Amino acid sequence: MSRPTSKQRTAFNGALQIERGTYDAADNHTSKFVAPEGLTEELVREISAQKSEPDWMLEKRLQGLAFFQNGKLPSWGPDLSDLNLDEITYFVRPDAEESTDWEDVPPEIRETFDKLGIPEAEKEMLAGAGAQYDSDVVYHNLKQEWKEKGVIFENMDVAVQKYPELVQKYFLTCIPPNDHLFASLHAAVWSGGTFIYVPKGVTVDIPMQAYFRMNTQGGGQFEHTLIIADEGSELQYIEGCSAPKFAKNALHAGGVEIFVHEGARVKYSSVENWSKNTYNLNTKRALVDKNATMEWVNGNMGSGVTMLYPSSVLRGEHAVSHSLGVAFAGAGQNQDTGAKAIHAAPNTKSTIVSKSISRDGGISSYRGLVRMTPAATGSTSTVQCDALLIDAESTSNTYPYMKIDADNTELTHEATVGRIGEAEIFYLMSRGLSEDDAKRLVVAGFIEPIVKTLPLEYAVELNKLIELEMEGSIG
Questions:
Q1: pLDDT band at 84 (very low <50, low <70, confident <90, very high)
Q2: Residue 393 contacts by C-beta under 8 Å, 6 or more apart in sequence?
């Protein structure tokens, strides 16, 4: 068993108090525009018109709509038959304009982000912060020192207006509109999100962050994140997500496109804590050039169904991808997560570490892909999947897929599934811990590889969220 760090002990001793109601309670806010349920060409055109988009963006949206209308739900993975796409509200605009001052954000919206700790985190540890509420960004700001170095950190809608040539060069090229059904849907109705450009040789040594909050019953959120790290640059970006708990299904189908140019390094961290009535069907992909490094860190919990597989296409020699993920599945939850690494150049390297925790009949699955193309001579990949079962009713699955078309490559895969050991619990209880605290400590040690890669505040939050999910399931 891995020994918990002092950071983890602090989290589990309650240094940061997180109430479930902070995430599950909806706000009393009246939106200025709520689209009818369902997706039509009229709605797609309305979204584009309200945003005053250029013709090329409307064409992208209509292309996505056409692919969506001819597409089908995936026949593999979790059951999506209860997701009625005709009952989703695809576009909801809050009664708020984007601001660089939290005081200008409507009080009932600002209060939610205050409870989530976003303004305080921005002051203490962030280079910039953004906050989205339903379909619109309500706050976005980058500190002056990074503006002076040429860093761009904008709401995605604003970036389309201010940097049209740069956006058009990259937008929906990493995730094409015909990639799969929910990529097509995203292309048609995307709204808000984050645009980041870091110039050549610039290192942003403190994180930038965006937080996405869904508030509408039966709503959908489709933010688009586009990150461009130019040659030799470095940045760290963090996304947080949550939604209130409703009886009606909600949908999240965001898109993340990351371009890591030669010698650059990007670390993308995400703690996704959607409510249990939410289908989290997100797409994240990075193109990684020569001598560049992409790091994915993902925590997935909360949502009733998740299908999420961050992908790296290693298209330059000596490109590197690291993926770390943890998923928590409780009663009524199906967490289908993993990662992909496509080696498309010589001497590339990937590592995938996936951890899952299941309790009260929850289903967690690792689903991953490692592909070595004929050009990937000399490349290596390591996959490690560890599953922890809290009880006999829960399920853990592993679905690895590996396709090797290159010579002189090395690939290893290891998968373990286990229950919390009685010997470990007995030992910890002999040291004065209660049985519940002993089990929490084992879980803390189990997720340590993920936690230690996050900034302190987010590591504590992830630990506390998992502790909340454990309440009532142990003892």
A1: very high
A2: 360, 361
